[in-house]
Amino acid sequence: MEAEVYALLKDYAARVSASIDSADGARWAAFVDEGLTRSRRGLLVDEVRSSAAGALQLRDAWGFRPAVPNRAFIDCGCGYAESGVIGKGLCIECGELVVRRWSAEELRLLAMVPEYRGRVEEILVDTEARQQKQIGVRSETPFADVASKRARGGRALRRLRRSGRRLLVSTEGDLPSERWTQLARLTSRALQTSLPLEGRRADKRGLGAAGLAALALKGDRDILG
Q1: What is the DSSP letter of 39?
Q2: How far apart are CA 223 and CA 96, in angstroms?
Q3: Is CB count within 10 Å lower at the N or C end of the chain?
Q4: Side-chain half-sphere of 129: how many Cα atoms within 13 Å?
């Protein structure tokens, strides 16, 4: 749902930006960061910044509000969810939040290139099976051993990225998107053991890297029980 909302806001911005006075648009953009911080919704900074005046009203009208620190079901320890600014790194809650957003954006992009999506899905399904099998094996270094299974999936994504460039053609231009790349960089700042590496390797792996990051989260939970 979040990826759909982002896509709708981008489409809205493309339609109305020409109708908004440039000075007014710039003034609105200057208030985005401060306004979202004051309302404890800083995690929307990157999303709303790429849209246009009216974006927040539209987002609220669609009835989709992200979790924020003053609600009981999120426990932000780094400040990112409130301010949109990263300090030493993303806490566990925000690291998981960013991976969910990254995965949603990846699924949105893959829907535009069905043949490439099919190949990515095959790699991820195979990687998950290998990961789960490894989790069932006793080991003194479980996180590293499980990560090695994801690394194998990562190498498969790299090969696909090189051989399948012709399949990455969509009406939105080059894939992955700027937002996908931005979320990958945010993931590289997560404090979880397995996530930073998945984020740092995203550029070489291309689409499917967010799927591997989601598997890293799942793997860590399964190992810890």
Answers
A1: T
A2: 16
A3: C
A4: 6
Q: Cα separation of 107 and 183, whole Å?
A: 13
First to last CA, the chain: 29
The predicted-structure confidence for 186-215, as pLDDT tens digits, reads as follows: 999 998 888 999 999 999 999 999 999 999
Helix then strand then coil, % of the chain, to nearest 5: 70, 0, 30
CA angle 93-94-96, nearest 5°? 70
pLDDT recorded at residue 63:
66
Q: Say how far apart CA 212 and CA 150 lie, in whole Å.
A: 7
Q: What is the dihedral of CA 197, 200, 204, 208, to 10 degrees?
A: 70
Burial readout 199-220 (b: 16 or more C-beta within 10 A, e: otherwise): bebbeebbbbbbbbbbbbbbbb
Would you state the torsion angle of the CA atoms of residues 19, 20, 23, 27, taken in this order, to the nearest 10 degrees? -160
Structure tokens at 58: 């539209």
Instruction: Single out the residue of 171, 173, 168 nearest to residue 157, CA to CA.
Output: 168
The first and second tokens of residue 114, run together, are 């069905």
Nearest to 112 by CA among 101, 123, 120, 122: 120
